[in-house]
Amino acid sequence: MDFVRVLVVGVFISLALRDGSAEQVMGLPPCDFPAIYNFGDSNSDTGGISAAFLPIQAPYGVNFFRKPAGRDSDGRLIIDFIAEHLGLPYLSAYLDSIGTNYHHGANFATGGSTIRRQNETIFENGISPFSLDIQTVHYDQFKARTSELYKQAKDPADRSKLPRPPQYFSRALYTFDIGQNDLAAGFRKLSDAQLQAAMPDIVNQLASAVTHLYQRGARAFWIHNTGPIGCLPVATLYIRNPNPGFLDQYGCIKGQNDKAIEFNRQLKARVIKLRAELPQAALTYVDVYAAKYTLISNTKNQGFTDPLKICCGRHDNNINVWCGQRAIVNGSDVYGDTCAYPSTYVSWDGVHYTQAANQWVANHILNGSLSDPPIPITHACHKRLRM
Ligand SMILES: *[C@@H]1O[C@H](CO)[C@@H](O)[C@H](O)[C@H]1NC(C)=O
Ligand SMILES: *[C@@H]1O[C@H](CO)[C@@H](O)[C@H](O)[C@H]1NC(C)=O
Ligand SMILES: *[C@@H]1O[C@H](CO)[C@@H](O)[C@H](O)[C@H]1NC(C)=O
């Protein structure tokens, strides 16, 4: 029986590789990923920066976890919907030492992370000290130390919170969502030409992280591109009387989105090149930009309100009281509270998406329709020969 199954699977695989079409890959069994290892910034941080620095406060987390849950949203992030979709638990943050379980993976993302080191502290512009190169060092340390602990453990209960080496590393899905803060730092510190000139280095450092993990046995990579950063309300909040053409028809800063598009163009080209450099890797490039921009440009049809409106916090009369903060305005105490209907907002706090928007985006990327190659995440371990 086993022989027959092996034979059938073998036939499927050779067909898939010869033909190279997404349909053939779909004929293969789902990957059955035992674990997820995630690298990124606040778009996918499930508790890292909150544990390492100042805890994220209420009302963050209120619409799902019913309490702050280390996430910059009112509920789940895209990475949480990915975990759900793959039948895995939500990822514990590597930097969190309390109540964590790493059996099915770990999250190395931290809010404020960049691909490149920024030479800034978190107290200046919120830049995390855990840039992507440090996140991969954390991964190495995590892998070495959990593997050792796993081998030493006498009691099965001691192993139940650790990944099983080596399969839970080699067969895991490695996810990336990072780059947005490199652009934000670029807008802040570099000229347009300098940021343009830095772009290949930023993209190369992301490719280096992928290569680093590949050399240590990782094979399946799911790489998000960066979102329309110029559509974040925080970007447009302070703009008064913009010149014609500065904003697009949805109120997003066009020049900033153009930089994100350029980053994504170079990232996609680099991922295609990586396929040649890392012959055994299955690399999926995911157009998160398209998903987010499609939502922003279709909010009315999709049951959302004006995409530049901020749910949590108070932003009127030139007063900005950010989500969860308090301020004295005209002698009275003002609290940056949540809006009444968070599920109709795209932006939770001016920088981060609501759970409802994250779910919408996840629904549009998980089935592979915005991926290169167009393979659903359940099949993202299968490599295609010809693209
Ligand atoms: C940070 O500082 C180092 C050493 O001065 C420099 O090589 C590097 O380019 C800087 N990084 C950025 C992103 O500015
Ligand atoms: C504060 O009070 C002044 C004077 O009454 C008023 O003009 C201004 O709009 C008030 N600001 C806010 C944010 O309510
Ligand atoms: C993927 O999901 C989105 C959202 O549900 C849907 O609009 C799209 O048609 C789907 N694409 C495929 C290829 O299934």
UniProtKB/TrEMBL annotation:
Keyword Hydrolase assigned to the entry: answer is yes
Q: Which InterPro entries match?
A: GDSL (IPR001087), SGNH_hydro_sf (IPR036514), SGNH_plant_lipase-like (IPR035669)
Family affiliation: Belongs to the 'GDSL' lipolytic enzyme family.
Instruction: List the Pfam families.
Output: Lipase_GDSL
The name under which this protein is listed is Uncharacterized protein
Which ranges does the record mark as transmembrane? none
Q: Which GO terms describe its molecular function?
A: hydrolase activity
Tell me what organism the protein belongs to. Ilex paraguariensis
Q: Which residues form a coiled coil?
A: none
Q: Which UniProt keywords apply?
A: Glycoprotein, Hydrolase, Signal
The residues forming the signal peptide are 1-22
PANTHER family listed in its UniProt record = GDSL-LIKE LIPASE_ACYLHYDROLASE (PTHR22835:SF546), ZINC FINGER FYVE DOMAIN CONTAINING PROTEIN (PTHR22835)
Task: Please indicate if the UniProt record lists Glycoprotein as a keyword.
Answer: yes
